[in-house]
Amino acid sequence: MVDPAALGLTEDDVELIVKRYLQEKRDKYNAKFRVLSYHVKRLSEEPIGYLGDHYFLNVVLREKMVHYSAEEEEYAEEEYLSFFLKILPEQVPKLADYVREMGCFRKEIQLYTHLIPRLQDVTIGTKPFAPRAYLTKDEKLLVFENLKAEGYRMLENNKSLLDFAHLEVALKTVAKLHAASLVLEERTKQPIAKLYSGHLNENVYIDDETYVRKTNLDNAIKALCELIKRIDKYKNSDKLDYILGKFPEVIRRIYDFARPSTEYRNVFNHGDLWNNNLMFKYDEPEKTAPNSDPGACAAEGGATGQQEHQPPEEQQQPQSMANGEKRRRRRSDLVRPNPFNFEGTPFTEDREPWSCVRDCVMIDFQIARYSPPAYDVMSLLNTTTTRAFRTVYLDRLAKLYYEFLLAELEWFQIDVDEVFPGDHFRDSCEEYKLAGLIDSILFRHLTLLPVDLVASCKECPVPVSFENLMENSISDLGIKAWDSCENYRFMMTDLLSDLVDTYIL
């Protein structure tokens, strides 16, 4: 167990969290209750995120009955609630300083205090695109609903890859976020960057010699060049020097991509769409009960195996609304392909049988930005797939995203052709394919590192602090992973070859 006070969590905070939960989930605005006990425990001994520590807050309470005596209340049923805590990693001072300098917690707290609730109000009556935050505090603590208790899971043992079915549902959620952004701007007649000044300022790709991430990117380029030298089709090529000379220039184009576009309509972008920042809900025989399991996983935890399926017919039908009306959804004219089976990818784990994926939420908005929708879409599709998959399905999935965006905007009686025409989206996708590929390379050369290899580095107690290591350490770890981990070698070869073949040679 962990002392809640050591994390900055007080008894008054816990009561406020429970009160907000009862108001939001059960519409009990005048609920009287008594917190009997609460405790905090770490989500996992292994780090599951890269820019924060993660915990459960488990609460035991009893509702106060108006006509009950104190003695009678003692026999009233106890209730157990579970919440998810995200804390600034102060136990690792260098990492905490790094996160503070990037402004990650400050940004996410600002977003969950102001902008995300506004967007959730805009899209009321639809499924949420993100978990509810019941408390933000001191630029170092956030308390969320427990998504596991709502039936959501994070995919594990899938090498961070998603199949067609999961991507389809994920893109529907991304479209909800982008549509909410567009609806808010259309209603207020002001860009979000002006409505919420500073909330979506770039905090990752800043081309400033004094900024910590500038050093990280320069070191990453050197480490990635060492990996390119080890790819079979380049290492003995007479074009190797040319590739290594052009590679830094191509990677540094990310600085321009990360700025708001002057050509295409910008929206609130999540900015970090990869396996660990997406949670899925499935149609299963046993439904998860409402929030009542004090030991359930939370917003950034959970597990399930890599799945395969054909999207069922009912997923393509209109969704029922709370008022009984049907929400219009356009059926895609695309033939739903069989899910990609990751052929050629060195998976060894058995995949568990499962039922159909039907919903998704996004978590972790610490590096959100204001940019065209294509940035999020292309980043997701590059980070969670292989090159072979993208060759077959990328354009189809991009078209599906646009159909989802169209349906969302139609629901709010907004013509997508007026706010974001299809030809603009297609053109922006072509342009931002490179942004998605660069993003994927820069993040995955770190997130794919084997945990045991990272843990063996004395300077690196958790994976994210790897970004603070000296350039030689970065290269050394990458080379060790290349030599010892088949999946790391396969995926980095796949990504780097795509960039070199498409944008350099």
Automatic annotation (TrEMBL):
SMART domains to which the protein is assigned, alphabetical: CHK
Transmembrane segments: none
InterPro entries assigned: CHK_kinase-like, EcKL, Kinase-like_dom_sf
Biased composition annotated in UniProt, kind: Low complexity: 306-319
SUPFAM superfamilies, sorted: Protein kinase-like (PK-like)
Residue ranges of domain CHK kinase-like in the record: 142-411
Pfam families hit by this protein: EcKL
Source superkingdom: Eukaryota
Region listing for Disordered, in residue ranges: 285-346
PANTHER family (alphabetical): CHK KINASE-LIKE DOMAIN-CONTAINING PROTEIN-RELATED, PROTEIN KINASE-LIKE DOMAIN-CONTAINING
Protein name according to UniProt: CHK kinase-like domain-containing protein
Species this protein is from: Aedes albopictus (Asian tiger mosquito)
